[in-house]
């Protein structure tokens, strides 16, 4: 299958260039770059409506180019918050509409927008959140689906969310019922205990009185004994009262736990719903979801374990029979600042949310969108049916969070996409690589991809496009230069793991700004694509790779000239007569044509 070379249109809000002011201008300018693929950089997800789409499709068909669409840049795919989940879904829908309207081959999204949730602050995030699962449902649904998770949550709900969750789950009537039931039981117990102590004190007082009457003690001794008996009884009653107060609190908790358990296990969704759904925490939502994945041995979890096997299985001794393995592992990672384990933890949860979004958006795309929205637009149906979804490794927009994004490493995205395709039984979901994005995350793309593709032999099979700018943590979108060996190595490593062997793959230069943002980038990529399709290893690349077009005999000519001059270092050191011209024709000598003869002798 071919490797197709393309360019991006660029973003108007970044370059502020006149040629990017409208979608038609974006396409027109891209056509002047000599590429046969154009990836439309969407400034907004709803950039291409049906009217503009007709014009864009006409240009594409007449020019014979493939169009691709880079969807919304602000899709919070991995965030376990219901309104964020809905925003992400909305942006994905709008992006897909733009892609279909313009006849694009795929719609692209970043695999995640945020870094680890434990690092998110109130600035830029919601003060009150409604926790949700991977499919956008309220978080209580996964507790109902997995009994072990429900059991775990009931035990830990007093520690999560600063202990607020029980009060949020139950309504006021249920809370009052639990408290009153516990109080009533404890009052009965208190009366029983107090009565028993008083009876014991009464018996002791009677015995003291009998001793006095029998003459065994004096009246003064009897009165002292009575005081002691009364004091001891009062102390016991006080102790019992305090203990019953503590026990009442514990009993009330146990009654609340029974109510929560009953709500979680109920088959009635209205019963399962919490009384107050806000005031959740992102970190708590991830704790709940991570335990859901662990207890169910979810395919996403197992796939992520596989790419972190040395850490999770080797070092942390993964044990599904240990109910509290994940709790203990997280505490160990937290205490020891083990960022590799946290990478695994967040990637597993984030990938599950990626799966949930993919499932929901494909259900919509293949169902309601085609059947209803495109009902009167039959010319768009084929584009909708053939549209691919691809997810790109994200850039670290803030360098202090480099390497701390939810799904930032190619191996994480590989585990997620391969599993999603299998779980959802779809071949419409792919990976887009970006070497600049990898570099902004603190990775060395050359080293990482060499090592990765040696271990994961089918990594390239899931790639549909590559943002083929030279690796650079500055994210400069600098034009590709001829003979960029770093870039070729990255592409070669992916090629050897299957890239472009089962379906077309787009090698795309992402334009930057400046007077000429492309320069020789397209030519350089075409040369690379040619050698990649021939499976030429980096060490075997000819001079053509560097833009040096050799003509017949050039190498041999240079070698012969070197041979002719091989003795020059010895000149003036030999006593034998030195010849300047070698063998000359006598006719050439007579005519004074020695130099001409010398030039011709090597032709």
Keywords:
eight-stranded parallel beta barrel; TIM Barrel; 7% strand; 603 residues
Give the arrangement of secondary structure elements.
Layout: E1 3-8, H1 12-15, H2 23-31, E2 37-41, H3 50-63, E3 66-70, H4 82-101, E4 106-110, H5 140-145, H6 147-156, H7 165-169, H8 172-213, H9 219-265, H10 269-272, H11 282-296, H12 299-307, H13 309-315, H14 325-336, H15 339-373, H16 381-386, E5 388-392, H17 410-423, E6 429-434, H18 435-440, H19 445-455, E7 463-467, H20 485-496, E8 505-509, H21 521-533, H22 554-564, H23 586-590, H24 594-600
Parallel strand pairs: 1-2, 1-8, 2-3, 3-4, 4-5, 5-6, 6-7, 7-8
Helix pairs in contact: 2-3, 4-15, 6-9, 6-11, 8-9, 11-15, 12-13, 12-15, 12-17, 15-17, 19-20
Tell me about this structure:
The chain is of the alpha/beta class. It has three domains: 3-124 and 343-541, TIM Barrel (Alpha-Beta Barrel), CATH 3.20.20.150; 140-272, no CATH class; 554-600, no CATH class. Helices cover 54% and strands 7% of the residues. The protein is elongated, with a radius of gyration of 38 Å. The mean pLDDT is 87.
- In the CATH scheme, what's the topology name of the largest domain? TIM Barrel
Q: Which secondary-structure class do the elements indicate?
A: alpha/beta
What's the total helix number? Answer: 24
Strand coverage percent: 5-15%
Number of domains: 3
Helicity range of the residues? 40-55%
Name given to the CATH architecture of the largest domain: Alpha-Beta Barrel
Rg estimate, integer Å: 38 Å
Superfamily (CATH H level) name of the largest domain: Divalent-metal-dependent TIM barrel enzymes
Query: Which strands sit side by side, in order, in the main sheet?
Result: 1-2-3-4-5-6-7-8
Question: Sheet with the most strands?
Answer: 8 strands, parallel, barrel
Number of strands: 8
Q: Average pLDDT across residues?
A: 87
Distance between the termini: 42 Å
Task: Choose one word for the global shape.
Answer: elongated
What's the CATH C level of the largest domain? Alpha Beta
Low-confidence stretches: none
């Amino acid at each position: 299958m071919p490797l197709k070379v393309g360019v991006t249109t660029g973003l108007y809000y970044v370059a502020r260039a006149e040629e990017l002011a409208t979608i038609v201008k974006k396409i027109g300018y891209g056509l002047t770059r000599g590429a046969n693929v154009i990836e439309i950089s969407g400034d907004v997800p709803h950039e291409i409506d049906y009217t503009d789409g007709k014009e864009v499709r006409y240009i594409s068909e007449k020019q014979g180019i493939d169009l691709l669409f880079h969807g919304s840049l602000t899709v919070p795919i991995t965030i376990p918050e219901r309104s964020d989940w809905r925003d992400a879904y909305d942006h994905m829908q709008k992006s897909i509409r733009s892609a279909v309207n313009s006849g694009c081959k795929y719609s692209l999204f970043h695999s995640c927008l945020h870094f680890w949730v434990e690092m998110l602050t109130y600035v830029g995030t919601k003060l009150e959140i409604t926790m949700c699962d991977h499919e956008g449902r309220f978080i209580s649904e996964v507790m109902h689906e997995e009994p072990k998770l429900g059991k775990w949550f009931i035990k830990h709900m007093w520690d999560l969310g600063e202990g607020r969750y029980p009060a949020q789950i139950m309504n006021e009537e249920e809370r009052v019922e639990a408290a009153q039931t516990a109080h009533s039981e404890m009052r009965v117990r208190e009366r029983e205990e107090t009565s028993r102590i008083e009876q014991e004190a009464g018996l002791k007082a009677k015995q003291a009185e009998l001793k006095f009457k029998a003459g065994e003690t004096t009246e003064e001794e009897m009165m002292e004994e009575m005081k002691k008996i009364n004091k001891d009884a009062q102390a016991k009653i006080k102790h019992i009262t305090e203990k019953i107060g503590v026990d009442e609190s514990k009993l009330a908790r146990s009654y609340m736990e029974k109510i929560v358990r009953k709500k979680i296990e109920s088959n009635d969704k209205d019963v399962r719903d919490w009384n107050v759904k806000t005031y959740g925490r992102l970190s708590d939502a991830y704790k709940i979801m991570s335990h859901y994945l662990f207890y169910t041995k979810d395919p996403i979890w197992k796939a992520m374990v596989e790419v972190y096997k040395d850490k999770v299985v080797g070092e942390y001794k993964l044990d599904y029979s240990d109910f509290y393995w994940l709790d203990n592992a997280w505490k160990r990672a937290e205490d020891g600042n083990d960022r590799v384990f946290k990478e695994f933890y967040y990637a597993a949860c984030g990938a599950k949310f990626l799966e949930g979004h993919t499932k929901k958006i494909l259900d919509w795309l293949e169902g309601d969108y085609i059947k209803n929205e495109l009902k009167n637009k039959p010319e768009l149906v084929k584009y909708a049916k053939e549209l691919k979804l691809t997810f790109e490794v994200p850039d670290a927009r803030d360098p202090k969070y480099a390497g701390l994004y939810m799904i930032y490493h190619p191996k994480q995205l590989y585990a997620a996409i391969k599993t999603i395709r299998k779980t959802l039984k779809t071949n419409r979901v792919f990976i887009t690589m970006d070497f600049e994005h990898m570099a902004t995350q603190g990775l060395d793309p050359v080293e990482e991809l060499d090592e990765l593709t040696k271990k994961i032999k089918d990594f390239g099979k899931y790639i549909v496009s590559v943002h083929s700018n030279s690796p650079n943590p500055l994210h400069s979108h600098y034009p590709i230069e001829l003979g960029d060996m770093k870039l070729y190595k990255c592409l070669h490593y992916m090629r050897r793991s299957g890239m472009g062997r089962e379906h077309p793959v787009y090698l795309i230069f992402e334009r930057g700004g400046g007077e000429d943002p492309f320069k020789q980038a397209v030519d350089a990529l075409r040369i690379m694509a040619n050698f990649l399709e021939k499976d030429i290893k980096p060490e075997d690349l000819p001079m053509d790779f560097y833009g040096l077009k050799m003509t017949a005999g050039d190498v041999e000519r240079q070698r012969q000239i070197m041979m002719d001059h091989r003795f020059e270092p010895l000149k003036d050191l030999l006593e034998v007569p030195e010849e300047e011209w070698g063998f000359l024709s006598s006719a050439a000598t007579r005519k004074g044509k020695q130099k001409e003869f010398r030039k011709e002798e090597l032709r």
